[in-house]
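Researcher: We plan to redesign the surface later, but first we want a full-length starting point. Tokens attached.
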């Protein structure tokens, strides 16, 4: 009798209400989608515009970072001073991917090209016509959009190269190109819109095609050219390209002489977006009525199957009380029991997820990934509090409490993981052993509290030059630290170590621990191995430690690689 009542008083009225609501909602959504199709197009253009600005600004940042870093690189300084073109190209080629730039140009102190990575056989010409080079020759770092002899449109930075006594010996110019078909193809894939780069009013590189061919060399609309090039203003609006309507955005690139010499263009075909909006309306109608049909079937099945007795739910609750969380709650009684059963199943699911997430988090921490965080926002109340406390305990076990960076235990897990990975992939694994110079004297003179502060400052400063997510910094113990560099050869390890050493020295951490040193410095020993079954982790560590001992024995504040025979 109860089931018959449910059918007549719940199922039929509910289905009728769902049908009416679905129909009204479908009509409302359809009207809204159609009326806002143009707004969707405008919003996409705005989003693409912001993405383009971000891409251009990133190019400026990458260029400046690369130029400044390479101008201070001891290998670059040595190569420029000796006019060793092959060495300049070698060091520059290594840095292209590291700094996400496209080319390096190195000149002497008169602006004469010593080497170009993008045209290795072209050198000896003067670049004093480029403002970035001029400023660098005057001792200033500057970044501009510029047209070059080989690279037609780019953002580039010039930075002076000085030798040890501060004498200007050359210039490093680095840049990100915007003038190739590969660049616009990548941006099209990113924006899902056509992208064009113009030199003056002529398309230099474009994804726009006619009869399957790129329309490079085509002139842009003269009216738009006057706005963008002559008046140096951005333009957004409708335009036609070979009778095809587009929503377009033109962004001028202004050089050091305040001339709009190039233009970025984003073109979104209106016909495609409107077709997408219409397809979205059709899909919404189809999904809505399909969902309605499925909901009606589910409702009928659920309502007609609420017949299981309360004792079944009680038995299942007894199973849970015994700790058997694998049980599945079968809530098939009347609606009150069904609600209780579903609520109980949610509790079981939360406990399952809590246990699984905690196991994953602990596993990640044991692998050395001490920054892994459990997303406790999926839990509420005491569940969230429990998850937070367990995670805190796990983190405390894997991090050094004084410095806040991973501890020796965490490093051991990570070293074992990376060693096995390098053994499998046959890739080099590098280790830096770092020791704070004269720390014991400092600690004895200034006290342990001040010594702890120095170690904390050194730990934070050590993290600054580490850019790759796979690299790992940890406290080894006492005043010693370690840096693990997977897939890094000996040259790369020495490069990173020198940057770290210079960063600590440049941080100018005060030292009053006696002796002649006025600031805290570090010594670093490096070792690189390609793991094999015959080699051991202990060998990697012990050899790096031997290199560190040599660095300290030969004067401190230096980097020494491990050398066979030590």
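Model: Full-length starting sequence:
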């Amino acid at each position: 009798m109860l089931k018959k009542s449910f059918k007549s008083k719940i199922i039929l009225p509910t289905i009728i209400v769902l049908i009416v609501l679905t129909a009204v909602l479908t009509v409302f959504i359809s009207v809204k989608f159609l009326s806002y199709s143009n707004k969707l197009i405008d919003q996409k253009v705005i989003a693409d515009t912001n993405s383009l600005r971000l891409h251009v600004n990133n190019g400026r940042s990458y260029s400046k970072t690369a130029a400044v870093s390479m101008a201070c690189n001891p290998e670059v300084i040595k190569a420029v001073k000796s006019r060793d073109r092959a060495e300049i190209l070698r060091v520059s080629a290594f840095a292209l991917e590291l700094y996400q730039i496209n080319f390096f140009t190195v000149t002497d102190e008169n602006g004469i090209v010593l080497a170009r990575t993008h045209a290795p056989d072209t050198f000896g010409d003067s670049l004093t016509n480029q403002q970035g080079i001029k400023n660098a020759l005057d001792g200033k770092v500057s970044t501009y959009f510029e047209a070059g002899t080989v690279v037609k449109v780019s953002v580039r930075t010039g930075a002076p190269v000085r030798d040890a006594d501060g004498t200007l010996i050359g210039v490093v110019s680095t840049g990100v190109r915007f003038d190739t078909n590969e660049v616009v193809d990548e941006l099209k894939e990113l924006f899902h819109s056509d992208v064009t780069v113009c030199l003056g009013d002529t398309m230099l590189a474009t994804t726009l095609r006619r009869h399957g061919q790129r329309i490079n060399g085509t002139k842009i609309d003269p009216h738009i050219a006057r706005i963008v090039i002559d008046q140096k203003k951005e333009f957004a609006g409708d335009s036609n390209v070979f009778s095809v309507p587009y929503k377009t955005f033109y962004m001028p690139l202004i050089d050091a002489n305040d001339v709009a010499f190039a233009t970025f263009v984003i073109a979104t075909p209106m016909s495609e977006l409107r077709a997408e909006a219409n397809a979205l309306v059709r899909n919404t109608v189809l999904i809505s009525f399909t969902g309605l049909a499925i909901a009606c079937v589910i409702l009928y099945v659920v309502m007609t199957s609420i017949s299981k007795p309360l004792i079944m739910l009680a038995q299942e609750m007894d199973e849970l009380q015994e700790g058997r969380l694998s049980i599945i709650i079968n809530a098939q009684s009347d609606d009150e029991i069904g609600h209780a059963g579903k609520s109980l199943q949610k509790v079981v699911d939360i406990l399952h997820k809590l246990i699984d997430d905690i196991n994953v988090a602990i596993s990640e921490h044991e692998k050395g990934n001490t920054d892994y965080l459990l997303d406790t926002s999926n839990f509420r109340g005491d569940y969230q509090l429990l998850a937070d406390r367990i995670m805190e305990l796990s983190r405390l076990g894997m991090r050094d409490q004084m410095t806040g960076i991973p501890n020796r235990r965490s490093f051991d897990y990570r070293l074992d993981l990376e060693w096995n990975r390098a053994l499998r992939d046959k890739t080099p694994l590098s280790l830096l052993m770092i020791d704070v110079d004269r720390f014991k004297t400092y600690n004895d003179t200034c006290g342990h509290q001040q010594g702890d502060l120095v170690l904390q400052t050194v730990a934070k400063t050590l993290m600054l030059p580490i850019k790759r997510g796979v690299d790992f910094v940890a406290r080894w113990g006492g005043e010693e630290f370690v840096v693990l560099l997977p897939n890094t050869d000996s040259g790369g390890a020495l490069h990173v170590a020198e940057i770290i050493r210079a960063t600590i020295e440049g941080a100018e951490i005060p030292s009053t621990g006696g002796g002649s040193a006025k600031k805290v410095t570090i010594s670093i020993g490096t070792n690189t191995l390609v793991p094999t079954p015959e080699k051991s982790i202990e060998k990697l560590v012990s050899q790096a430690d031997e290199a560190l001992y040599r660095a300290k024995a030969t004067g401190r504040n230096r980097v020494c690689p491990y050398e066979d025979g030590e």
